Amino acid sequence: MTKAIITVVGKDTVGIIARVCTYLADNQINILDISQTIVQEFFNMMMIVDLTKSVKAFSDISDELAKIGEDTGVQVKCQLEDIFDKMHRI
After folding, report:
1. Is the overall model pTM greater than 0.90, yes or no?
2. Cβ neighbours of residue 88 closer than 8 Å, sequence gap 6 or more
3. What angle do CA 57, 59, 64 make, to 5 degrees?
4. In what order do the strands lie in the sheet with 42-50?
5. Residue 85's CB: how many other CB atoms inside 10 A?
6. Are 18 and 71 in contact (CB under 8 A)?
C-alpha cells in the first residue's frame, strides 16, 4: 500500500472538503483516516490516503491538489508517508 499525508490549512470557506474529496474519489484515492478542525475562522484538515489504485504519478497528484488549494484559497500539501515520517522524527 502506498500511503500519503494530505494537509489543508487556511481560512474556512464553503466547499473545501468537497473539492479535495471529489478530486480524491475521481482519482481512485481512498481516504483511510481524516481529521478536521476549525479554530475561529481557520480551517485545518489532515488526511491519510491510499494511492495504490490511482493511475496518476504522485507528483501530478501533489501538483493538482496544490492547484485546488490555490483555487480555494487554502494551502494543500501532499507528502508520501515515508517522507513525512522521516521529516517529523525527533
Report:
1. no
2. none
3. 100
4. 30-39, 42-50, 3-11, 74-80
5. 12
6. no
Core vs surface per residue 18-52: b (16+ CB within 10 A) or e: ebbeebbeebebeeeeeeeeeeeeebebebbbbbe
CA–CA distance, 86 with 10 (Å, rounded to integer)? 25
Distance CA 70, CA 15 (A): 13
pLDDT per position as a tens digit, 4-41? 999 999 999 999 999 999 999 999 999 999 999 999 99
d(CA 11, CA 39) in angstroms, rounded, equals: 10
The residue type of 75 is Q
What cell was used for 9?
490549512
